[in-house]
């Protein structure tokens, strides 16, 4: 089920909130689990069994690892979820040539996210950094928690362990959650979806202008798509009394690739840092080992996003940028640094999208005209939206809101806030009712 | 309750009101504006639940059956075009009050396919007939060249079709038409403005039309297909019919239903597409009889929907006009249904269809 769907907004969510609020405190996790299973099973009921297997493995091995912290047991515990992820996500990629039937295996939605959550739980228990969860119901509610189940943020067990057993749903939190959810919904429906139409319609491989339009629009689309989803997840979490970690912090403002990854999909970056990079030795090792660590982490980051070579290439592209920055002690003047990051990120997402050689060539004018009528039309038609999206990807709107809130009388400011959010709800509903373009890019990961 | 709630409360109430409306609203069968059947909520049974089909159907119905569907669609279109500056809504743009669909470049493959279909028809059924080709330009032809909207190279399309159908005598229609010959909200042309086009066609075919018609309004609240698709705010238009004594006495036989009636389908006015008023819209095979015309004068027309309002005007010149739409009947089935015996044949197709001809059989 998509957050940005009429079914979710007007059927599922009200029912879930209502039942949750009516349930006695001790039964609230059961209510959450029930609705989470409905949420997940709505799209792919057959994969409920797969998730149940992952939950049981995680729960059982968590208890065992707490008693006996052996590497062999950890390897065994991790092997189960990893094997399931590998089979469903990577078997076609790795062995599809030999066994074509593997290519037909559909990727269960959200498997990369909840597998990583289970892995972090198991490793944290093994490290003694968190206690194993004794209640199967609470553990299942953590893994299946629908606000963040299918597209993150990757919520580590340790960060919400306390809230799993004891949390308050107050009006203040719910109101904050509502605002965050609607802002995320607006990012997704009013910006990302429309940017997606631009990407589809500007003739990316037909002209230089079309190629650049598609590249820039796609970078913005994926940002608003994914950060919008994260906002919705965080907002929904607040509805139910959870505090999920932030996942984006204006990544396009970065001055280096390293900084970009501290601002983009923060929970994934920190997951790989804490569970792969640092255990491999991190950067406090001989240079060749550090390079090896970097390549492993970024190849895995690429693969996490998708079982295809373009994702591996995309990950290694960032590894190359990080190597370059580290080895040259990259610290140019701010305008050059910003331009470098924006250019690198936009180009990287052409690879990420699987644009192909023709599209890449078109960016540099290889065999295509400077512009076609369709590209010029797309620029004119989507130009204002592109401008809005560019401004929206910076802190300017937040700063403008802060200025307004400090200068306007409080009742006026709150009335304005209420109007904006109501307008967002109505406009998003209107777009969804009209059946506009509505894929969630991060669902395939 | 803390102060934060005061601003959130109206939003929550709005949300709840929409929820209640969505849950309680009776289901609707048809979207008049979109001219399509709306999905209805599925019945809960085990098999579609297991397969996921139930959920897909529910999602589709929840979207289709949402209350205030048309106002919401209009809100989206207005927001996109007036606030975000989009130049089109669902690929339909407004130029000087005329709604038109964005056209792609000339599709060579589509033209070749159409030409192949038409050539096969000729070789199979009327190798010795005189064949005429009249191409109906869509509205885009009449928009200024400096318009910001991408437009196809119409002259190239005309030239290409003429080259692909060397046996057909081309009939120029563009000189007899202008932008106001078309509805503002629909793809089609207006019958009451087709007098000159009919005369040009008749002249090429070697028949004479009186040119004396009376334009009679038949529907004053017509909103065409582009109005519904785009959801942009539009004003209703008036549909007219051109008539005179000869046309009133013509009869039309619909070979799909076996029914015989006049040139106008009054029930069609109330159909999903009121343009069905003209020759009943999408019909595979019709015969128009004019008892006032000489017995030996016959014409066979292969056409698309643009023919529905033009062909009746040609009826003055012929005893029998056979009207065939091979999008709805396979050409092989014409044997025995149409008697080809050397009559003139007219291919009357729009640029829109020729450039997207996969529906031709």
Total tally of structural domains of chain B? 2
* Overall helicity of chain B: 25-40%
Work out the helix count of chain B. 11
Average of per-residue pLDDT values of chain A: 89
Order of helices and strands of chain B: HEEHHHEEHEHEHEHEHEEEEHEEH
The secondary-structure class of chain A comes to: mainly alpha
Sheet bearing the most strands of chain B, described?
8 strands, mixed
* Ends distance of chain B: 69 Å
- Please trace the helix and strand order of chain A, writing H or E for each element: HHHHHHHHHHHHHHHHHH
> Quick one: overall form of chain A?
globular
Mean pLDDT of chain B: 92
Strand content of chain A: under 5%
Question: Largest chain-chain contact?
Answer: A-B, 51 and 47 residues
Strand order of the largest sheet of chain B: 6-5-14-12-13-11-9-10
The low-pLDDT segments of chain A are: none
Oligomer: heterodimer
């Amino acid at each position: 089920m998509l957050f940005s769907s009429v079914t979710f907004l007007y059927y599922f969510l009200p029912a879930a909130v209502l039942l949750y609020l009516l349930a006695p405190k001790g039964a609230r996790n059961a209510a959450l689990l029930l609705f989470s299973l409905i949420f997940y099973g709505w799209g792919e009921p057959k994969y409920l069994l797969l998730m149940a297997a992952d939950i049981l493995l995680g729960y059982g091995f968590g208890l065992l690892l707490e008693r006996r912290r052996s590497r062999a047991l950890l390897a065994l515990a991790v092997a189960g979820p990893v094997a399931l992820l590998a089979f469903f996500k990577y078997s076609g990629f790795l062995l599809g040539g030999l066994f074509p039937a593997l290519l037909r295996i559909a990727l269960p939605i959200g498997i990369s996210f909840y597998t990583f959550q289970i892995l972090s739980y198991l490793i944290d228990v093994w490290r003694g950094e968190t206690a194993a969860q004794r209640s199967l119901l609470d553990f299942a509610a953590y893994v299946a928690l629908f606000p963040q189940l299918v597209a993150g943020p990757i919520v580590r067990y340790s960060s919400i362990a306390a809230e799993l057993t004891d949390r308050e749903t107050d009006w203040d939190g719910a109101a904050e959650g509502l605002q965050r959810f609607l802002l995320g919904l607006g990012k997704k429906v009013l910006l990302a979806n429309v940017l997606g139409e631009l990407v589809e319609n500007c003739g990316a491989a037909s002209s230089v202008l079309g190629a650049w339009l598609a590249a820039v629009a796609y970078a913005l689309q994926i940002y608003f798509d994914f950060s919008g989803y994260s906002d919705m997840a965080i907002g929904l979490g607040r509805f139910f009394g959870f505090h999920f970690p932030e996942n984006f912090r204006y990544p396009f403002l970065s001055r280096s690739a390293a900084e970009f990854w501290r601002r983009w999909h923060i929970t994934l970056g920190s997951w790989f840092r804490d569970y792969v990079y640092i255990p491999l030795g991190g950067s406090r090792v001989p240079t060749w080992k550090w390079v090896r660590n970097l390549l492993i982490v970024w190849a895995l980051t690429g693969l996490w996003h998708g079982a295809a070579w373009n994702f591996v290439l995309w990950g290694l592209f960032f590894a190359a940028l990080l190597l370059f920055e580290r080895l040259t002690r990259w610290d140019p003047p701010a305008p050059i640094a910003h331009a470098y990051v924006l250019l690198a990120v936009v180009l990287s997402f052409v690879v990420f999208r699987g644009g192909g050689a023709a599209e890449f060539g078109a960016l540099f004018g290889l065999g295509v005209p400077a512009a076609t009528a369709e590209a010029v039309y797309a620029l004119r038609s989507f130009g204002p939206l592109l401008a809005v999206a560019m401004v929206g990807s910076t802190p300017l709107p937040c700063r403008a809101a802060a200025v307004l809130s400090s200068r306007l009388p409080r009742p006026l400011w709150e009335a304005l806030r209420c109007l904006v959010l109501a307008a967002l709800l109505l406009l998003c509903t209107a777009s969804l009712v009209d059946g506009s373009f509505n894929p969630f890019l991060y669902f395939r990961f | 309750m803390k102060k934060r709630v005061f601003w959130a409360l109206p939003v929550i109430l709005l949300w709840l009101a929409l929820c209640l409306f969505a849950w309680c609203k009776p289901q609707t069968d048809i979207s008049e504006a979109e001219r399509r059947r709306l999905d209805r909520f599925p019945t809960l049974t085990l098999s579609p639940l297991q397969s996921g089909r139930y959920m897909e159907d529910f999602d589709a119905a929840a979207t289709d059956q949402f209350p205030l569907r048309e106002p919401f669609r209009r809100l989206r279109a207005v927001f996109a075009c007036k606030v975000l500056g989009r130049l089109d809504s669902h690929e339909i743009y407004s130029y000087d009050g005329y709604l038109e669909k964005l056209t792609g470049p000339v599709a060579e493959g589509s033209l070749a396919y159409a030409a192949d279909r038409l050539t096969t028809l000729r070789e199979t059924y009327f190798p010795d007939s005189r064949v005429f080709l009249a191409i109906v330009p869509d509205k885009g032809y009449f928009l200024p060249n400096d318009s910001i909207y991408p437009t196809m190279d119409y002259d190239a399309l005309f030239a290409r079709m003429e080259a692909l159908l060397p046996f057909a005598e081309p009939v120029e229609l563009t000189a007899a038409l202008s932008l106001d010959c078309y509805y503002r909200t629909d793809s089609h042309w207006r019958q009451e403005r087709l007098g000159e086009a009919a005369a040009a066609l008749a002249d090429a075919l070697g028949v004479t039309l009186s040119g004396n018609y009376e334009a009679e309004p038949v529907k004053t609240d017509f909103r065409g297909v582009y109005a519904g698709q785009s959801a942009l705010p539009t004003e209703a238009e008036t549909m007219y019919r051109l008539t005179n004594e000869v046309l009133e006495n013509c009869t039309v036989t619909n070979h799909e239903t076996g029914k015989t009636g006049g040139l106008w389908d009054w029930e069609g006015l109330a159909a999903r597409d009121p343009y069905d008023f003209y020759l009943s819209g999408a019909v595979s095979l019709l015969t128009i009889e004019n008892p006032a015309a000489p017995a030996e004068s016959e014409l066979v027309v292969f056409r698309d929907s643009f023919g529905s309002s033009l062909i009746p005007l040609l009826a003055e010149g012929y005893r029998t006009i056979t009207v065939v739409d091979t999008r709805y009947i396979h050409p092989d089935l014409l044997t025995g249904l149409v008697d080809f015996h050397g009559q003139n044949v007219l291919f009357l197709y729009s640029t829109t269809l020729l450039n997207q001809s996969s529906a031709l059989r």
